[in-house]
């Protein structure tokens, strides 16, 4: 006789309701009891190793170092290896016949991360496995592993703190645990954003959020980290424009990520096209100080300036077409506030990730206590009590706001808070990766030579890009009006 599920393991959120929740949430949240019957929970490294056989996977290798600076993907080494070799390496074996390319990287000194692996490519010979991922139960009919990425890492493997510009993320933890540090869009000025390394869909932070250099980045003191340790079987919702730093905390971790692209307004696409044109033009110009690895490995290569300008013109045309001949230049479509129409049903199946004092201590370098990190479990009901608030009284609106704990009351910030760049006077030292920072310094003088990256830092500042975008559209409007008067 089949055993009945316990009441706590029974799903109570239906696909249509989950989709509505995702469209209403403005802060990170964890879904429980949603994936207990998903076949993808069998995708341990051992299982995937048997499925892939001798197929090689690219791993990013990072040093286990603590120097108060982010380790960007451009600064890592990369190896090709099978998952069987990866397993042998994580078990402490060192023989080259067993661990392959990992033999050059002592486990005590390096971590490994197979990140951004598109399941559609990795398992292109085993397409039936796509159906093991059931994003349809989150209100996305037909969405499965084909639309997802696989992430396999060791303890210490991490993704630098960044925000995604176009969409939001659903992350299913399969094996091991990951600790997520998330910061609201309103805290962008505290995170010192940078477009170097350049990635079109991401903006990176210059701050090592676990060991911040507060002399260089003093505004980070005011950043509000929302921290959660994601357990196997749980799904984390990461809203659009929320900063996040992710670290693996168990010897082996596996997770599946689905990036949901949202409709982006034409002005935002124009801003991205403008940013790309500026960055590529300056960083490809012959120069003595253009010797850094500035293009993120996730980008598919460089496009010439003429091509970038074509995309820029297409973005301008799209903005002008939407505005129409009689629309004022600054007309904006008001955002819908779903918070007044729908109350998110927090409870046993959905728990918000909130800011708390423990998180604040962790981000200044303190290690979590052992009792905060119990042994791994596949219990779909298990949530870290120290990292996820247990209350269910928070009210969340649309994507983009911030939720923080104050006293005993949950305070939700406005969903319309703009994404802002660092405040003047808070930028501290030049961006991480700039060498010879004191070049040009003379005795009795505080002059520092302006390098290409310093110039870029100012040119692609969000406020500058927004203003140039306005000027471009104003220019096009004037030209269009002149042409209409001549007819």
UniProtKB/TrEMBL annotation:
Keywords assigned: Cytoplasm
GO CC field: cytoplasm
Gene3D superfamilies assigned to the protein according to its UniProt record, in alphabetical order: Jelly Rolls
Localization, UniProt: Cytoplasm
Primary subcellular site in the record, as a coarse category: cytoplasm
Top-rank lineage group of the source organism: Eukaryota
Keyword Cytoplasm tagged: yes
Protein name: JmjC domain-containing protein
Organism: Umbra pygmaea
Lineage: Eukaryota, Metazoa, Chordata, Craniata, Vertebrata
């Amino acid at each position: 006789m089949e055993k009945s599920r316990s009441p706590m393991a029974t799903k109570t959120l239906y696909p249509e309701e989950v989709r509505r929740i995702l469209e209403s949430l403005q802060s990170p949240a964890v879904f429980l009891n949603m994936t207990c019957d998903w076949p993808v929970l069998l995708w341990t490294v051992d299982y995937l190793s048997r499925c892939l056989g001798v197929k090689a996977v690219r791993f990013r290798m990072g040093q286990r170092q603590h120097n108060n600076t982010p380790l960007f993907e451009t600064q890592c080494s990369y190896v090709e290896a099978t998952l069987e070799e990866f397993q042998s390496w994580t078990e402490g074996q060192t023989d080259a016949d067993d661990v392959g390319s990992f033999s050059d990287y002592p486990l005590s000194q390096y971590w490994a991360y197979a990140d951004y692996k598109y399941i559609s490519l990795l398992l292109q010979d085993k397409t039936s496995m796509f159906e093991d991922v059931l994003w349809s139960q989150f209100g996305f009919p037909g969405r499965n592993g084909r639309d997802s990425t696989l992430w396999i890492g060791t303890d210490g493997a991490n993704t630098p703190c960044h925000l995604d510009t176009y969409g939001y993320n659903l992350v299913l933890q399969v094996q091991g645990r990951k600790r997520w540090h998330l910061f609201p869009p309103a805290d962008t000025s505290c995170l010192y954003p940078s477009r170097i390394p350049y990635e079109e869909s991401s903006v990176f932070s210059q701050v090592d959020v676990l060991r911040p250099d507060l002399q260089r980045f003093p505004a980070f003191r005011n950043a509000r980290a929302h921290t959660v340790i994601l357990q196997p079987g749980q799904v984390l919702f990461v809203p659009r424009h929320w900063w996040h730093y992710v670290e693996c905390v168990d010897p082996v971790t596996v997770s599946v990520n689905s990036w949901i692209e949202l409709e982006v307004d034409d002005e935002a696409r124009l801003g991205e096209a403008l940013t790309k044109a500026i960055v590529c033009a300056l960083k490809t110009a012959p120069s003595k100080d253009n010797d850094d690895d500035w293009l993120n490995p996730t980008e598919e290569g460089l496009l010439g300036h003429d091509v970038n300008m074509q995309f820029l013109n297409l973005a301008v045309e799209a903005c002008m077409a939407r505005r129409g001949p009689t629309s004022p230049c600054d007309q904006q479509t008001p955002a819908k506030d779903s918070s007044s129409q729908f109350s998110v049903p927090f409870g046993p199946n959905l728990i918000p990730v909130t800011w708390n004092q423990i998180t604040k201590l962790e981000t200044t370098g303190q290690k979590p206590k052992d009792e905060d990190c119990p042994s791994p479990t596949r219990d779909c009901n298990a949530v870290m009590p120290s990292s996820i608030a247990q209350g269910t009284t928070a009210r969340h609106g649309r994507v983009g706001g911030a939720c923080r704990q104050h006293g005993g009351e949950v305070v939700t910030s406005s969903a319309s808070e703009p994404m802002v760049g660092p405040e003047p006077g808070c930028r501290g030292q030049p961006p991480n990766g700039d060498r010879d920072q004191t070049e040009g310094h003379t005795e009795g003088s505080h002059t520092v030579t302006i390098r290409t990256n310093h110039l870029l830092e100012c040119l692609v500042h969000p406020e500058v890009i927004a203003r140039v975008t306005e000027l471009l559209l104003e220019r096009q409007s004037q030209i269009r009006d002149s042409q209409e008067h001549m007819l």
